[in-house]
Amino acid sequence: MGKYMQDAQALLPLVGGKENISAVTHCVTRMRFVLVDPARAQVDKIEEVACVKGTFTQAGQFQVIIGNDVAEFYNDFTAVSGIEGVSKEAAKQAAGSNQNPLQRAMGVLGEIFAPLIPALISGGLILGFRNIIGEVNFFDATGAFNLEGGVMSIADISTFWMGVYNFLWLIGEAVFHMLPVGICWSVTKKMGTTQILGIVLGLTLVSGQLLNGFAVAGTPAADIPVWDFGFAQVQMIGYQGQVIAALLAAFVLVGLEKFFTKVTPEVVSMIVVPFCSLVPSVIIAHTLVGPIGWTIGNAIAEAVNWGLTSDVRILFAAVFGALYAPVVMTGLHHMTNAIDTQMVNVMGYTILWPMIALSNIAQGSAVLAMSVLQKKNERAQQVNVPACISCYLGVTEPALFGVNLKYRFPLVCGMIGSACAAMLCTGLGVQALSIGVGGLPGILSIKFECWIAFALCMVVAIVVPFALTFVAGKKKLTKVELVGRDAAAAAPADAAPVAAAADAFSSSASPVPAAHPNAAVATEAYDLLAPLSGTVKPIEQMPDPVFSSKCMGDGVMIEPTGTCVVAPADATVSVTMPASNHAVGLTLANGMELLIHVGVDTVDMKGDGFTCHVSQGDHVKVGDVLLAFDPEKIAAAGHPAATAVVVSAMGSAKDLQLMTGQDAVAGETAIARCE
Question: Given 100, 131, 324, 642, which is the most exposed site by the fewest CB atoms within 10 A?
């Protein structure tokens, strides 16, 4: 009998029984269920199961966080349930049945834009900085500081800053003018066709031979160059910054390539398929779908802008501000990236993004209130604090799924606060130069002249949700929820369940290997060395809610500069992922359990770019190579390479001290210290 049999037996009816499970698989930390009826999952009771560290729903999958022993739990669960597991890809396909056509379409759109977001954020910050040094007139004609009557910017009075202003446009132009190249590439990557053809198609949309798309509006029709084919003329117009046109053109290419791949004999496919896919798609892009996409994109941008500048703008803002957080939970929020980008490229600014940043702040403020209310609930604080921090930094999923949705009223209070802030934001006419980092850093994307107005909006987004959540929480939260089960236990009889839970937890601990030098004296301090080279940051910055919320345990995030993961201490290999090789678990002699997880969602790569050098049960010395990875392949697959190093169990160790904010060398630099 497996050690998780009892927990597996407890979990099965809580997810709705065997008949409610259409597919189940697992990754390195969590069980992934595709449920026939997700509403039948009893989330509150599931999270009370001894080995369960949390739950959340994403992309049609109900995910139960187990930890390092998820593979063993999975084996026990499939044995108990009699359900044969499937691959992660098969589970994702099955999950599509839990989504309506709109959700599936938005999911595809989200996966297309996700790899582009780092570039868009960087470009937005650069445009914001260029605006401050080159567009804001701080000085009068004499060079004296005069914000009200200024006629010259910092760049106007300084050769150096003028050089910086001009140089930074090199990046700004690459991000926003050449955006169709990235879109076409991302579409082909998502749809599984030839990515270089997507890049070539994108380049034809922004070629220097064409009239720049941003100059079309100011160019007389008679002066627009054309291709003259005798029987027809086609305007030589570029699609710089156009989103919809690039998407439509890319999907034409994808459709043609899939068609010709299917009908072309393999012996000549290398020649026929690329040629017959690329040439017609370029023609169709410039003659048909490009002009259509241009019209649709501009119409959407103008419609949203009208909604935010018309007589009903306050109502529009209230609805958007209130509903944005629930939209995030459905995954449909990715469509706003396309709208924001289109608005920036058409009008030079967006009014939508400031409200998104305020929604992040509002939900984070609701969590902040919960953190104050539950300051004596140690278990709740392990989720509240990092969720609040990540939310204020623009990553809302830990807050939404880990706190606000769980208790419901913080979500509603955050929505109300977001609506109030959005109405004020729209009423004051706040504009952003581009999308950027959400939450509090979102002010960096705001036009400088709107900073004071946006700061007032941020105050509203902080104060209103906090106050509402605090008042509501005083009435709605039980004593157990406020202070935790242990503190709330007044009668000796209550100690039995607590002890049982403790026994269940301890029973799930991995076997302790033989002693090694790092644990020769249990009470002496010793270091855990960096498992890979890179910049060490707080785990709260990990772009994965499972790790950033610390439900797996405390630890650090490393932005890698190296390509090898080494043992941070003498240990026994307790977990490997043979199908993907993207993560490894270690158990030290003192019972401490470590999980090293390279990248976010890199399990989807199915081992491409990863090589594991150890097997489960191997004994390793500090500095031994555990696995190697290819950062370029991770980037090409659209995944962050950020690596989580998590202490999932302390064993007999205590007083864990994490050393962040440093550049580490694999196997040399200490990133944590404990006794």
Answer: 100
